[in-house]
Amino acid sequence: MAELKIDAVVFDVLGTLVDEPAGLRAGIRALTPSPDAAGTERLLLLWQRYIEREQRRVLDGDRPYVPGDLLDGEAAGLVAEAAGVGDPAAVEALARSARRLPPWPDTVAGLARIAGHFPLIGLSNASRTALLGLNAHAGLRWHQALSAEDARTYKPDPAVYRLAVTVAGVPPERLLMVAAHAWDLRGAQALGLRTAYVARPVGDPPTPSDRFDLYAEGLADLAGQLGVR
């Protein structure tokens, strides 16, 4: 650990610190009366694939940038239509479920522990408005929370990671990007940030060819590897 000298820790939010599928499942169950497990998973997959596809279209230049909460509204409409629900209030409630995501059991204590030793920066594809709701609902502790909306694009575009570098005011190699998604860490790595993969049940695990600086089983493990007691 002596060779890993960092001045701040940058955390991904969705999937890394909050259980996004769990929150969306709760919204889907509230949308339609007693959906079975298979039906809920089908609608969840519909949401996830839509968001992934539309963010990719923005990254590829096939769609002008729109903030994440607008995409959430579109996804909610798609899911509601598939569930046979046309009530606009129900669709809006489903869209807002993307801001009410439960933290993982180790998130709040882990952030507090690490925040006692390093400045913490949240860096999310969620919009500024959605990020405010996410932080409040999950009790996330930050010294600064940054939305990809400020770069008008989405991770893994380098412009998003550059937001954290600019705010921290240090060279990229003095920042540690923490995520449960290997694709996110690769994006940060391309800009020169150090990287830490944290295992979560819903993430994008590293491939054999990935070479990240740290691999942690959770935030307590990460804190220990950072020398935080």
Describe the structure.
- 46% of the residues lie in helices and 11% in strands.
- By secondary structure, it is α/β, with parallel strands linked by helices.
- Helix 8 links the parallel strand 4 (175-179) and strand 5 (194-198).
- Helix 1 (20-31) crosses helix 2, helix 1 runs antiparallel to helix 4 and helix 3 (68-82) crosses helix 4 (88-96).
- Strands 3-2-1-4-5-6 form a six-stranded parallel sheet, with helices on both faces.
- The protein is built from nine helices and six strands.
Shape: globular
Ends apart, CA distance between termini:
14 Å
- Write the element-wise H/E pattern from the N-terminal end onward: EHHHHHEHEHEHEEH
Low-confidence stretches: none
Secondary-structure-derived class: alpha/beta
Put simply, the count of helices is 9
Short description:
The chain is of the alpha/beta class and about 230 residues long. The chain has nine helices and six strands, in the order βαααααβαβαβαββα.
Describe this protein with a few key phrases:
single chain, 229 residues, alpha/beta, six-stranded parallel sheet, 9 helices, 6 strands, globular
Walk me through the topology:
Elements: E1 8-11, H1 20-31, H2 37-59, H3 68-82, H4 88-96, H5 107-115, E2 120-124, H6 128-138, E3 144-147, H7 158-168, E4 175-179, H8 182-190, E5 194-198, E6 214-216, H9 219-225
Parallel strand pairs: 1-2, 1-4, 2-3, 4-5, 5-6
